[in-house]
Write a structure and sequence with these properties.
The chain is mainly α and about 290 residues long. The chain has 15 helices and no strands.
């Protein structure tokens, strides 16, 4: 039974990474010029999907209880996610999908660095070496901004996304009662409300509305729902390891569908980040007790 649940968890986490990996390709298929219009519709569709999913799974009364039990840590995680999901859409107008996703790949190690800076959590020597390598890799990737080929705003927003996710990771780890799904749903709600005041028009074509619905419901909403179901069935290190499928596959889909080719610096910096991250995660997975039944 335990092995079966473990296998189901692996499949669900892998499916969530696959769904998330299509985000860049979906965004590139949308012809809406205003990033804030895209943020609004994506966040709106994601909120509707997640609320319906939670009420079907938990019931209306339990759903309200979950929102009420989040407290300030849940609100903080929600704000982090609102910032990250908004910056993702805006960053796509200024940099490549590969830059955004490969910088995000370093989130687990950035979280370890923040945990040390904010709470004094100790890390072993291998983790510090991996953190240093991630910093080097991100520096190589963002050095494209010096050549003028990539906007500094785009890579700056990509770094902000990674920091927001890293903060959310640390908060979730230190406050185990924080439920990811209601916190993220609140985050998409905040993003939708904020973008309402920043967009100049809600009008989109029928084709774009279809892409926006998929961008919000399938890429964001369903991806999160599947991840929350799978992540509780596998060790955190393994979930993070499987999650690296997203930054691997994301640039491939955009290359195949929109001929967006990463620069040599992005590939070099991404390779450094991945080498550090995968080595770190594999070591963590090796240290984690394995299922025996």
């Amino acid at each position: 039974m335990f092995r079966r649940q473990h296998t189901i968890g692996i499949i669900l986490v892998a499916l969530s990474a696959l769904l998330w990996s299509f985000g860049g390709s979906m965004a590139r298929s949308i012809t809406v010029e205003s990033s804030w219009t895209i943020v609004f519709w994506r966040s709106y569709f994601a909120t509707v999907f997640l609320l319906v999913f939670m009420m079907m799974r938990e019931g209306p009364e339990k759903t309200l209880q979950l929102f009420g039990a989040m407290g300030w840590p849940g609100l903080s995680v929600a704000l982090c996610f609102a910032v990250a999901s908004t910056c993702f859409v805006v960053a796509l107008s200024h940099t490549t999908v590969a830059n955004i996703l490969l910088i995000q790949a370093g989130v687990p190690l950035l979280a370890a660095l923040l945990a040390w800076l904010l709470f004094g959590e100790k890390s072993n020597t291998a983790t510090w070496i991996a953190i240093a390598a991630v910093v080097v890799g991100i520096s190589v990737m963002t050095s494209d901004t010096l050549s003028g080929k990539i906007s500094p705003l785009g890579d700056g927003l990509a770094i902000l996304i990674a920091l927001a996710f890293a903060i959310a990771t640390v908060l979730t780890r230190r406050h185990a009662h924080v439920q990811m799904l209601p916190a993220v749903t609140l985050g998409t709600t905040i993003a939708a409300i904020a973008s309402m005041f920043l967009t100049t028009s809600y009008a989109v074509s029928a084709q774009d509305l279809g892409w926006l619905a998929a961008f919000g419901m399938i890429n964001l909403g369903l991806g999160l729902a599947v991840f929350t179901m799978g992540a509780r069935l596998v060790p955190a290190a393994l979930a993070a390891l499987i999650g690296t499928l997203e930054p691997i596959l994301g640039p491939i889909w955009v290359w195949l569908s929109h001929a967006e080719i990463p620069s040599s610096r992005t590939l070099l910096g991404g390779a450094i980040v991945f080498a550090a991250l995968l080595t770190h995660l594999l070591l963590e997975w090796w240290r984690t007790p394995k299922p025996t039944r």
